[in-house]
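=== How it folds ===
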Amino acid sequence: MKVRTIGIPVLDQEQALKFYTQKLGFVKSKDIPVGENHRWLTVVSKEEPDGPEVLLEPSPNNFAPAKDYQNALFRAGIPYTQFNVDDIEADFKRLSEQGVSFSMKPTDVGSALIAILDDTCGNHIQLVEMKK
């Protein structure tokens, strides 16, 4: 088995595309209309263009349990997923300067440094820098 795609529920696909590409630095991979103004919309890491894709999934707008789950995670401050970074302090500074909101600044948790940001689409995302 291989991981090729992970889904992240988003409230607005266009807003999510802008955030994930313009702020986080991902690159659009696929953008395929699938009906009802929805798209199979994926982004990939600029550093790993052949790596796993992140599907910006509009499920919260179409399936109430998905929206309830997303809202519950957000209210509890629990990240929906995490992305690894090489230098969390540099990414925190760069993203903060771009207006990205963090609910947790870079924090040492033993074997890693973590930070949590708001993706503006209904999710907390955790950034992780593994210690060497």
